[in-house]
Amino acid sequence: MQGLAGKNALITGASSGIGQAIAIRLATEGCNIAINYRKSPEGAEETEEIAMQKACGQVEECGVKSLLVQGDVSQEADIIEMVNAVVEQFGSLDILINNAGIQLECPSHEIPTLDFDNVLSVNLRGAFLCAREAIKHFLSRNRGIIINVSSVHEKIPRPFYASYSISKGGVENLTKTLALEYAERGIRVNAIAPGATITPINEAWVNDPQQKAVVESHIPMGRAGTAEEMAAAVAFLASEEAAYITGQTLFIDGGLTLYADFREAWS
Ligand code: NAD
């Protein structure tokens, strides 16, 4: 896609799932990738290996660079260090992908405050702080791109997952607010909203055929999405082909947000 080759991208939570697929896709498009991980260097190394293999094939040095950056996005000091490390190693930062996320199932009246805070501090506060640090750098060059990995639950309420739903509702507003605040300064801010996607966060149902069938029965297209399908949309939004798009959330959900109950005519 136009305008991605040679760009420097930081992807949070890139040691698995959607973040891993985004890192691989961006490297394939010629981006240098900084792979953030919190706890799993093995996962980050796997991301790096696949990404470099896809980007370079048999060529030893094809010009695409990679970097592993450890950091917990709920920790401000880690974020500052991480963004500085990327700028130092790559020379600049062009693209931030706020992908790191966690979820927690609990009836709302029973959720411990610390657990609630933890989900918000990773999914929303973490995304904001990463954006803040990236924007400081973007402003020195009057250009930059942020893509937040939100969820269909920025729109669809999710009982028993209130902290998650609330965090993604916040990500929708974060996307719009930053897009408006920095539109004149060459900074674009968008989001993707994945529907049910086959990744480790959904291990409760992806490996259980019966549970998977139940989940997929609610999806108009009849199947869950793949991490690669999410990454394709991120690559588009990060590319020059999306140069006039800002403040938008692109839903990639097989029709999940189309009120599936209306598939059949109601008498
Ligand atoms: P995943 O569990 O594979 O990925 C989440 C990643 O975030 C992991 O690599 C994890 O290590 C990282 N992470 C968690 N806490 C972190 C922290 N404090 N600091 C740094 N990294 C941290 O699951 P996934 O499905 O790939 O999730 C990626 C994003 O996609 C999340 O934001 C999630 O909410 C969103 N999403 C997923 C789905 C889905 O169905 N899989 C649907 C909608 C949105």
UniProtKB/TrEMBL annotation:
- A GO biological-process term: monocarboxylic acid metabolic process
Keyword annotations for this protein? Oxidoreductase
| Superkingdom, natural source | Bacteria
One of the entry's Gene Ontology molecular-function terms is: oxidoreductase activity
Q: Please verify whether the record's keywords include Magnesium.
A: no
Please list every transmembrane segment annotated in the UniProt record, as residue ranges: none
For the keyword Secreted, the answer is no
Write out the similarity annotation. Belongs to the short-chain dehydrogenases/reductases (SDR) family.
Recorded protein name is: Sugar dehydrogenase
Species in which this protein is naturally found: Aliterella atlantica CENA595
